[in-house]
Amino acid sequence: MVFRGKRGVELTLYDAIEVVMALAVILTFYNHAVTAGRNTEWEKRYLASDIALAIDAAQAVPGDLLYSHVPTKHPGTWAQ
User: pLDDT tens digits for 66-80?
Assistant: First the structure.
């Protein structure tokens, strides 16, 4: 099947399918980039290392320990 434009340029069905497939690939990459931008993996790693450091420090203290954790607000993190 052949489609003709105003200037006589032929666009075959294969060309149309190629354009649709290229658009699908571009949208898939865009969706992946947006999802990765919202990823909170680094926040989880920061919190895990913070808790691990607090536990190590608590184990090193001889005697009783009173511990109070106040999360600080970092730009773009979950702590509000």
Answer: 877 676 666 555 544
- Cβ neighbours for 39, distance < 8 A, ≥ 6 positions apart: none
Nearest to 76 by CA among 37, 49, 50: 37
Higher pLDDT residue, 70 or 23?
23
Do 43 and 49 form a contact (C-beta atoms < 8 A)?
no
Do residues 79 and 72 make contact, with C-beta atoms less than 8 angstroms apart? yes
Prediction pTM value: 0.41
Secondary structure of 17-58 as H, E, C letters:
HHHHHHHHHHHHHHHHHHHHHCCCHHHHHHHHHHHHHHHHHH
User: 11 near 19, Cβ under 8 Å?
Assistant: no
Residue 54 near residue 65 (C-beta atoms within 8 A): no
